[in-house]
Here is the input.
Amino acid sequence: VQLVESGGGLVQPGGSLRLSCVASGFTFSTYSMTWVRQRPGQGLEWVSAISTGDIQTAYADSVKGRFTISRDNAKDTVYLQMNLLKPEDTAVYYCVTGWRTVDRPTFPDSWLRGRGTQVTVSS
Here is the structure.
């Protein structure tokens, strides 16, 4: 059972990145998925979530209108398209299983998550 994030990097303010998270070892299509992020020294901030079946999405106010979440069940992958990036978007981004639209201080032991991908927004 594994989640592997990729697509992070260094980008200038106003730029774009597309994050990917590939799932394996479980039936991806039956799980809602959430992107969360963690800034240095801070807790977990949920960013965006996507449901199974009839697609529902949710966005934190801080990213609404700039980020778009999507999924491809045929590829067992969830994406996060990030546009108009700001320095405050700098964080390690993780995908986790489930609909996790609550900020938390740390990762609960019960969560399945990947190793994350670093996003740095700086000029």
About this structure: The radius of gyration is 13 Å. Strands lie at 2-6, 9-11, 17-24, 33-38, 44-50, 57-59, 67-72, 77-82, 91-97, 117-121.
